[in-house]
Amino acid sequence: MTRRKKSRQPGPLAPSKKPREELQRDSQTKAKRNKGHKPGSRHNLTRAKNEANSVKPEEKDSRFGSKKPVTLIAPQALVSEVADKPQPTAQQELEALQNDTKLQRLIALLEAGEELSESDLSYLDSRTERFNQLAEELGLELDDDDDELDDWEDEDDY
Fold first, then answer.
1. What is the largest CA-CA distance in the chain?
2. From start to end residue, where is composition biased (Acidic residues) (predicted)?
3. pLDDT of residue 53
């Protein structure tokens, strides 16, 4: 586009402006372009999903918690259920101790001559003590390796 020099002759140098009324009419007839989401859409997303799923007569404020009363003391029914759980029998407990992999690993380490931590030693002591109690309760005789050696040595003497 070429430039025109100003001249002293009367006439418009620039196109005239439209009146305000005409501009307002044009802006109302134009379709509004939507750019992005509406304000607050990230907070109202969960609310919109809930409304779509179920229609509630009252709008509840999600900031307030449940009004359902909480029992501070356990009801008797729950206490009796806990008490009614069957305790394992001595035989089942003994089998569980025999199948305990952690206990077997600790015994193997102890027999190999390695040092164990205090927590491992306390676990080993408590489990072996319980094993001895259960064996005594069931009337099982525990064979110690030393007793077998003594018996074997006694047989050689004869």
1. 149
2. 138-158
3. 67
